[in-house]
């Protein structure tokens, strides 16, 4: 399990994109915990910003990582009906790091080039 905690670094992703000849732009920035935090940063292409929501069902049996445009709101009740799932809510930060095998670190943003 510890091996997976080292899964991908920013450099691994950059190397992969280069090897696959996938155009991209890379921006390194201070941690941003909300869209408002990101808006305050000097990041180009702000219209392309997305947010990730880590959700769980009410029994903490199923977890979902939902990505949507930064300016969009989500109706968790509607989403739970469409998936289908039990009632959804936001998972804790601790569960996010545990379930996604993440380590706390500075934020990196990789954006696909057009």
From TrEMBL:
UniProt cross-references to InterPro entries, sorted A to Z: ProX/PRXD1 (IPR040285), YbaK/aa-tRNA-synt-asso_dom_sf (IPR036754), YbaK/aa-tRNA-synth-assoc-dom (IPR007214)
Pfam families on file: tRNA_edit (PF04073)
SUPFAM superfamilies assigned: YbaK/ProRS associated domain
GO MF, any single term: aminoacyl-tRNA deacylase activity
Domain annotation YbaK/aminoacyl-tRNA synthetase-associated: ranges: 29-100
Family, as annotated: Belongs to the PRORSD1 family.
Protein name: Aminoacyl-tRNA editing domain-containing protein
